[in-house]
Amino acid sequence: MPRSQRNDNFIDKTFTIVADISLQTLPTTKREREASTYYRDGMSAQSEGEYAEALRSYYKAMRLEVDSYDRSYILHNIGLTHTSNGKHARALEYHFQALERNSSLPQASNNMAVICHHRGEEAIYQGNLDISEAWFDQAAEYWKQAIAPSPGNYIEAQNRLKITGRFSLFN
């Protein structure tokens, strides 16, 4: 039984049932249904902190999924999982790949910004102020990309841009 069908709470069970019905009623191939199942299994494992299992499921989904838009979400979640594992460079690569396939994925831009900001803070602690500024500037650029499609989202990022004087570059 796929992991996504072993959910214990009502909302997850309901989502799984609706998703399964949708997959059966929509004109999808067996390959697409399999990719979707692996993707949902990855999300389930990721939400439970089972990152190695999540990555295995996401990689299986990537081998099966051919749609660029759908692949962007898989890549984004692989990036999130690597971030959770502390592998920030690898996470940035996957978020970048997700944006290459779907430039309308502000959450990938936001996560890239968070990683760059974190690296900027690390550089400060190491005494590398010039490097920290470069990371903060890169974070600001990614936050601007995340904010642009819907200015009502990412309020915390907007506030950080204002506090650091980088918001004026956004206008």
Give the topology, please:
Layout: H1 10-25, H2 30-47, H3 51-64, H4 68-84, H5 88-101, H6 106-125, H7 129-147, H8 155-163
Helix pairs in contact: 2-3, 3-4, 4-5, 4-6, 5-6, 6-7, 7-8
Written account of the structure:
The chain is an all-alpha fold and 171 residues long. Among the domains are: 55-102, no CATH class; 104-170. Helices cover 74% and strands 0% of the residues. It has helices at 10-25, 30-47, 51-64, 68-84, 88-101, 106-125, 129-147, 155-163. Helix 2 runs antiparallel to helix 3 (51-64), helix 4 packs antiparallel against helix 5 and helix 4 packs parallel to helix 6 (106-125). The termini are far apart.
**Poorly predicted regions:** none
Instruction: Note the gap between the termini.
Output: 51 Å
How many helical stretches? 8
Computed structural class: mainly alpha
How many β-strand runs? Answer: 0
Order of helices and strands: HHHHHHHH
Percent in helix:
over 70%
Q: Radius of gyration, rounded?
A: 18 Å
Mind describing the biggest β-sheet?
none
Shape: elongated
Strand content: under 5%
Mean pLDDT: 87
Tag the structure with descriptive keywords:
171 residues, mainly alpha, 8 helices, photosynthesis, TPR-like_helical_dom_sf, TPR_rpt
Quick recap:
This is Photosystem I assembly protein Ycf3. Seems to be required for the assembly of the photosystem I complex. With 171 residues, the protein is mainly α.
